[in-house]
Amino acid sequence: xxxxxxxxxxxxxxxxxxxxxxxxxxxxxxxxxxxxxxxxxxxxxxxxxxxxxxxxxxxxxxxxxxxxxxxxxxxxxxxxxxxxxxxxxxxxxxxxxxxxxxxxxxxxxxxxxxxxxxxxxxxxxxxxxxxxxxxxxxxxxxxxxxxxxxxxxxxxxxxxxxxxxxxxxxxxxxxxxxxxxxxxxxxxxxxxxxxxxxxxxxxxxxxxxxxxxxxxxxxxxxxxxxxxxxxxxxxxxxxxxxxxxxxxxxxxxxxxxxxxxxxxxxxxxxxxxxxxxxxxxxxxxxxxxxxxxxx
Length: 295
Prior knowledge:
Layout: H1 2-18, H2 25-36, E1 44-45, E2 50-56, H3 62-70, E3 80-93, E4 102-113, E5 124-143, E6 146-159, E7 169-181, E8 184-193, H4 213-217, E9 220-228, E10 231-239, E11 248-258, E12 261-270, E13 282-290
Antiparallel strand pairs: 1-3, 2-3, 2-13, 3-4, 4-5, 5-6, 6-7, 7-8, 8-9, 9-10, 10-11, 11-12, 12-13
């Protein structure tokens, strides 16, 4: 992943120099959100909302093995899954500090459904919950030809709502910066994990379920988005530079079909696609539909 980071940064600079300076992706997103934020029957998208038919070449069976064997059957997972994400936010208050500072609450749900695994009653293998509260500030700094249009800070909790040996969770404080130039946008995000107490014994319900999660999920994330006519391309790179062999990369492409509905493809490679797989390398490809295009 260390090589990928250098390549990613070089790509960012190459795209930023060729990006169309008009029709800012970020300005359009902010305008659309403010226009609909006070409408009572409108939910504002936060992250991308999508549903995908996906293929994972090596599903992680280990978290389910012990319970299955205790019940007397051999655990099995299908390579094929339905993966979907629902992500919305709600503006609590605009202009907290005079003419700036916008406070939001948000919730993201990401689920993995073993729809064809009828032997196991087609279960939801994993569901991740991610509530957060954050404040964004409008900005106009110029950096390397890009406009630093947004700065923000927030708190986020992420967990899979499971129990015992399958429980995963962490809490973070993060900072975020969005830079853009017309058809190109870049979001940088860094975070600090709030420490948890160690478990008194291995199966204790209290204490840290995943003390090494920083090694795999990293401590920063870079997201690049590029518009080519109606097409949208994104690349996400997540890493911890102290553990450069871990981390993750996600690539997406989308194209409008009708109104807000977009054809959406996604490729993921690395660690931490979901909480249950935070320390397992995953390679997944999927195709489906999305309702919004970037970030």
